[in-house]
């Protein structure tokens, strides 16, 4: 029984750790897409953030400097995205693909040239990373069955950026549904002409949305390389940006359901690692790939309307042309 | 992704030649800045790349070998684009298509290559087509966004191949996730064999007969797009879906067909990589060729001639980049990926940046004020 409890606690703790970058990135996508700018480029911005964070933390020794660098680098790419899609009304998907491609190449080239470790950055020691925070009384209640460990290892013991991600969900919900900026943000994603008629600048609104996206992607990237991990590796995002986008679709472009989507994807990921070669009751040993692809299959089914229906913001993907 | 619209009065030669040249130049400037940033001399690095790519017979043959795969994936992206679809799934379609080709080569062990080839081409095209057709169907009949679905299908393809090569297809008693080697009789003739037949001696090089198949496909795509009813329907749906429906064209069927053909073309990468070079099904043999096809198609402006030329360019970049990283340890071969990204940015997402300026520059002098406001 105690083994099962331990197993559950470690699964949950691992789910939280794996969900964090997805939550940050999918909320990032939330701002951009609700403002009508489709963002395939979450992946690239995260990757760039991860590299900037690890490189800066390795050189300066400060995780805070790393976090700042991650945000700055991701913001630059967000501006490129905005410049192409908002200012020049370029194709948003193509711009996203360009950003992902540039990020994949540039991080590898710079990491290789600056650190000469074959595309990695040096391993960071504990002072250069965001480490797990120790919650008060965690040791004292450890003995309490299940709940003690749950408090110490799932609720507590996570690093700062995890809590930031947890806070970002209600914050996003509040911004989007309780503030003037949020109302305008959602309006510009549904009907930019109406926003324009009200005398509000569509480009400026969309630029702000895209910059928030950049900020959150930067944090997500920093989490991967200087909180969860201890350094940058080539292509270390490995599709997490796309998965975050899928979670956003699964959550029908709303913050709390998106959080649920991220937790679901993270849980399948955590489960997948633990079920490798384990024989399950009834079905026997399942190839891990089947569990691994569940998020992708779910997204496909959902988008196709076989499991509920997910409808994107109406103006998403379209550049706004003022004089028409 | 907008097909080249000709509303701003830009001459055809400028659209087809000058714009890509400007885009390439911009990409070269950005990559020079990157090379500068890592403390190297961009001029000598770029010169070294050119020499590595086309300066020797070996270099040139590698360039052509890379170009072969890129022609397939570039055509795949372009044909979907003509129907108004952005197919990001070339990578997965190439991967699954290669599975079809590989299975045929494994099954038809004793057959000579010229008998295997048509079956392998059919199987590769069929497998790739299925992997493109499903997202196409879901877009046409269920309204799912093709971009997201094709991305998901890339992940599905990757998981499928990892599973198959790690278990059912793995070579008996081996640890590496690859199939057993094909029978030697099924290997596509490469440069060495062809040269030997003509009485020349060359080293073993990857360039093989599938280059001809790629060129045939390019010609076929040209014919299909501009000289058949299907092609006309695709271009009409791509230009204006509502108008196409009003004209009695079934947009749904057209979208499914376009994605099937697109997937089939991408699926032929395996002919070059597996039947031509690796001679077994390997993990990730398509190695980014599907994604590079996006840059190739954009730079080639969706026209088969442009795609062949930009495939040569990107093939040269791959080969030159590989040579460069042998010579300069500091420069990673991934520099090519940066250049590819910048090309996508400039010729795809920022195509509206250069166009108006260029149109203004090239405008005939006479009525400078009239007709300015369209």
UniProtKB/TrEMBL annotation, chain A:
<keyword id="KW-1003">Cell membrane</keyword>
<keyword id="KW-1133">Transmembrane helix</keyword>
<dbReference type="GO" id="GO:0022857">
    <property type="term" value="F:transmembrane transporter activity"/>
</dbReference>
<dbReference type="InterPro" id="IPR001851">
    <property type="entry name" value="ABC_transp_permease"/>
</dbReference>
<protein>
    <submittedName>
        <fullName>Sugar ABC transporter permease</fullName>
    </submittedName>
</protein>
<feature type="transmembrane region" description="Helical">
    <location>
        <begin position="209"/>
        <end position="230"/>
    </location>
</feature>
<keyword id="KW-0472">Membrane</keyword>
<feature type="transmembrane region" description="Helical">
    <location>
        <begin position="6"/>
        <end position="30"/>
    </location>
</feature>
<feature type="transmembrane region" description="Helical">
    <location>
        <begin position="93"/>
        <end position="115"/>
    </location>
</feature>
<keyword id="KW-0812">Transmembrane</keyword>
<feature type="transmembrane region" description="Helical">
    <location>
        <begin position="160"/>
        <end position="177"/>
    </location>
</feature>
<dbReference type="GO" id="GO:0005886">
    <property type="term" value="C:plasma membrane"/>
</dbReference>
<dbReference type="Pfam" id="PF02653">
    <property type="entry name" value="BPD_transp_2"/>
</dbReference>
<feature type="transmembrane region" description="Helical">
    <location>
        <begin position="65"/>
        <end position="86"/>
    </location>
</feature>
<feature type="transmembrane region" description="Helical">
    <location>
        <begin position="278"/>
        <end position="304"/>
    </location>
</feature>
TrEMBL record, chain B:
<feature type="transmembrane region" description="Helical">
    <location>
        <begin position="207"/>
        <end position="225"/>
    </location>
</feature>
<keyword id="KW-1133">Transmembrane helix</keyword>
<feature type="transmembrane region" description="Helical">
    <location>
        <begin position="12"/>
        <end position="39"/>
    </location>
</feature>
<feature type="transmembrane region" description="Helical">
    <location>
        <begin position="115"/>
        <end position="134"/>
    </location>
</feature>
<dbReference type="GO" id="GO:0005886">
    <property type="term" value="C:plasma membrane"/>
</dbReference>
<feature type="transmembrane region" description="Helical">
    <location>
        <begin position="146"/>
        <end position="165"/>
    </location>
</feature>
<dbReference type="GO" id="GO:0022857">
    <property type="term" value="F:transmembrane transporter activity"/>
</dbReference>
<dbReference type="InterPro" id="IPR001851">
    <property type="entry name" value="ABC_transp_permease"/>
</dbReference>
<feature type="transmembrane region" description="Helical">
    <location>
        <begin position="305"/>
        <end position="322"/>
    </location>
</feature>
<keyword id="KW-0472">Membrane</keyword>
<feature type="transmembrane region" description="Helical">
    <location>
        <begin position="59"/>
        <end position="80"/>
    </location>
</feature>
<feature type="transmembrane region" description="Helical">
    <location>
        <begin position="281"/>
        <end position="298"/>
    </location>
</feature>
<keyword id="KW-0812">Transmembrane</keyword>
<feature type="transmembrane region" description="Helical">
    <location>
        <begin position="334"/>
        <end position="354"/>
    </location>
</feature>
<feature type="transmembrane region" description="Helical">
    <location>
        <begin position="246"/>
        <end position="269"/>
    </location>
</feature>
<keyword id="KW-1003">Cell membrane</keyword>
<protein>
    <submittedName>
        <fullName>Sugar ABC transporter permease</fullName>
    </submittedName>
</protein>
<dbReference type="Pfam" id="PF02653">
    <property type="entry name" value="BPD_transp_2"/>
</dbReference>
């Amino acid at each position: 029984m105690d083994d099962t409890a331990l197993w559950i606690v470690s699964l949950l703790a691992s789910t939280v750790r794996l969900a964090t970058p997805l939550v940050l990135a999918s909320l990032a996508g939330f701002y951009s897409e609700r403002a009508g700018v489709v963002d395939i480029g979450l992946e690239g911005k995260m990757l760039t953030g991860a590299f900037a964070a690890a490189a800066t933390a390795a050189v300066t020794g400060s995780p805070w400097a790393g976090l700042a660098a991650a945000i700055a680098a991701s913001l630059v790419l967000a501006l490129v995205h905005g410049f192409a899609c908002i200012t020049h009304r370029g194709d948003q998907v193509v711009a996203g693909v360009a950003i992902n491609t540039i990020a994949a190449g540039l991080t590898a080239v710079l990491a290789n040239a600056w650190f000469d470790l074959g595309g990695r950055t040096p391993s960071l020691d504990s002072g250069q990373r965001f480490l797990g925070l120790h919650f008060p009384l965690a040791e004292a209640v450890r003995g309490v069955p299940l709940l003690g460990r749950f408090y110490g290892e799932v609720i507590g013991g996570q690093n700062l950026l995890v809590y930031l991600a947890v806070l970002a969900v209600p914050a996003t919900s509040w911004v989007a549904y309780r503030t003037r900026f949020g109302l305008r943000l959602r309006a510009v994603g549904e009907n930019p002409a109406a926003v324009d008629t009200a005398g509000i600048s569509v480009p400026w609104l969309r630029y702000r949305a895209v910059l928030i996206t950049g900020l959150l992607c930067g944090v997500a990237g920093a989490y991967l390389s200087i909180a969860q991990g201890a350094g940058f590796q080539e292509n270390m995002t490995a599709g997490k940006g796309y998965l975050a986008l899928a979670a956003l679709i699964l959550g029908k472009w709303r913050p709390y359901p998106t959080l649920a989507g991220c937790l679901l994807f993270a849980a399948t990921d955590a489960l997948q690692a633990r079920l490798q070669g384990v024989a399950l009751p009834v079905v026997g040993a399942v190839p891990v790939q089947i569990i691994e692809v569940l998020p992708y299959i779910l997204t496909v089914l959902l988008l196709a309307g076989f499991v509920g229906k997910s409808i994107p913001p109406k103006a998403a993907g379209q550049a706004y042309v003022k004089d028409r | 992704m907008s097909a080249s619209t000709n509303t701003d009065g830009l001459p055809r030669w400028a659209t087809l030649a000058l714009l890509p040249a400007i885009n390439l130049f911009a990409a070269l400037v950005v990559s020079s800045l990157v090379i500068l940033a890592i403390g190297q001399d961009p001029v000598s690095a770029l010169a070294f790349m050119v020499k590595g790519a086309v300066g020797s017979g070996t270099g040139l043959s590698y360039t052509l070998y890379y170009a072969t795969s890129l022609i397939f994936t570039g055509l795949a992206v372009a044909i979907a684009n003509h129907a108004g679809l952005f197919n990001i799934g070339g990578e997965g379609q190439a991967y699954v298509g290669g599975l079809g080709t590989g299975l045929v080569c494994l099954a038809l062990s004793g057959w000579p290559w010229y008998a295997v080839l048509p079956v392998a081409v059919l199987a590769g095209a069929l497998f790739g087509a299925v992997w493109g057709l499903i997202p196409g169907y879901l877009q046409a009949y269920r309204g799912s966004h093709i971009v997201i679905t094709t991305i998901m299908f890339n992940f599905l393809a990757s998981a499928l191949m990892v599973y198959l090569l790690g278990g059912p297809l793995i070579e008996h008693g081996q640890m590496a996730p690859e199939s057993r080697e094909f029978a030697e009789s099924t290997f596509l003739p490469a440069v060495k064999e062809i040269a030997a037949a003509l009485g020349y001696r060359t080293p073993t090089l990857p360039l093989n007969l599938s280059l001809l198949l790629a060129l045939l496909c390019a010609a076929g795509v040209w014919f299909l797009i501009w000289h058949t009813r299907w092609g006309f329907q695709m271009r009409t749906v791509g230009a204006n879906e509502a108008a196409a429906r009003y004209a009695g064209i079934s947009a749904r069927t057209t979208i499914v067909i376009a994605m099937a053909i697109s997937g089939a073309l991408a699926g032929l990468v395996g002919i070059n990589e597996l039947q031509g070079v690796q001679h077994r099904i390997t993990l990730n043999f398509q190695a980014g060729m599907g994604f590079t096809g996006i840059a190739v198609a954009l730079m080639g402006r969706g026209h088969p001639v442009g795609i062949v030329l930009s495939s040569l360019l990107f093939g040269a970049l791959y080969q030159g980049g590989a040579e460069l990283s042998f010579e300069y340890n500091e420069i990673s071969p991934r520099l090519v990926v940066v250049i590819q990204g910048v090309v996508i940015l400039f010729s795809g997402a920022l195509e509206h940046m250069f166009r108006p300026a260029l149109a203004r520059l090239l405008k005939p002098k006479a009525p400078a004020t009239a007709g300015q406001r369209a």
